[in-house]
Amino acid sequence: MKALVLSILLGMWLTATAQQNEKESLFNGKDLSGWIVQCQPQDSGKTFWTVDEGTILCNSIGKKEHHHVWLVSEQAFTDFELNLKFQAYPDSPGNSGLDFRCRYDSLTGGGWMDGPQVDINPSGMFWRTGLIYDETTGVRRWIHPSLPDWNMPEEYKPEKYLFKYAEDGDGWNDLTLICKGMHIRTLVNGIVCTDWDATGTLDDAVHQKRRVGQSGHIALQLHNGDELRIRFKDIWIKKL
User: Fold this and answer.
1) Burial class of residue 21, CB neighbours in 10 A (0-12, 13-18, 19+)
2) Residue 44 maps to a domain
3) How many domains does the chain have?
4) Among 222, 7, 234, 236, which Cα is nearest to 122's?
5) Distance of alpha carbon 219 from alpha carbon 215, whole angstroms
């Protein structure tokens, strides 16, 4: 009897471990199931995020009259490894980003996404891709590297980086984001961009008040007033 109980418990543990290690697709390649658009009321009738040729396409070229518009996962996550591919275009001057452990606040400034963001920058400052900006109300600055505001001088350009445009090779960039406790790690095309202990930053009183930084949603961003064309696909997440 004891052996049977132990066998059942072992089976339950193995099943739970296997489920925990399974990757989950956040994009089915057909529609935006599992995602919602979050934006200010004046932008609610505009369409920037669509599915095109099996990819998520954000296209605001020629349509600059908009505030920030986010495509947000319905699920929230705490500790995870997220992998996605994105395709950028050199004629797209706009900026994007991967917000994580974030939450949308409809009451602040007409609507705002609080939380940290992995920068995705197809413009001339593509080397910022993989670094961390904090969108949280009351913060709104680079936090890795730590800077006082949104400005990042070229002296912070990393020695090693790889960024591809649509016409370069297969034209897709691999982005990995790993969040385990307060340890944040990003890789772009296999190169480490961020490897950082966010203790004291993403778990402080400001972030706790807004319930971001330690747990929250995943979001893709269209920046205020930007003309942007960018694609995403192969979005997988594994809970840790």
Assistant:
1) exposed
2) yes
3) 1
4) 222
5) 13
What is the 3-state secondary structure of 124-189? CCHHHCCCEEECCCCCCEEEECECCCCCCCHHHCCCCCCCCECCCCCCCEEEEEEEECCEEEEEEC
At residue 2, the pLDDT reads 54
Cα angle vertex 223, ends 177, 156, to 5°? Answer: 55
Instruction: Tell which wins on pLDDT, 104 or 90.
Output: 104
Residue 20 lies in a domain: no
Q: What is the mean pLDDT of residues 201-212?
A: 98
- Give me the residue label for tokens 């590297």: 145
Note the pLDDT tens digit of each residue in 22-67.
Answer: 999 999 999 999 999 999 999 999 999 999 999 999 999 999 999 9
What is the CATH classification number for the domain harbouring 124?
Answer: 2.60.120.560
173, 87 in Cβ contact below 8 A? Answer: yes
The H or E element that residue 192 is part of is: strand 191-197
Residue 12 — very low, low, confident or very high, per pLDDT cuts 50/70/90? very low
**8 Å CB contact between 142 and 150:** yes
Q: Is residue 71 part of a domain?
A: yes
Q: Which domain holds residue 123?
A: 26-239
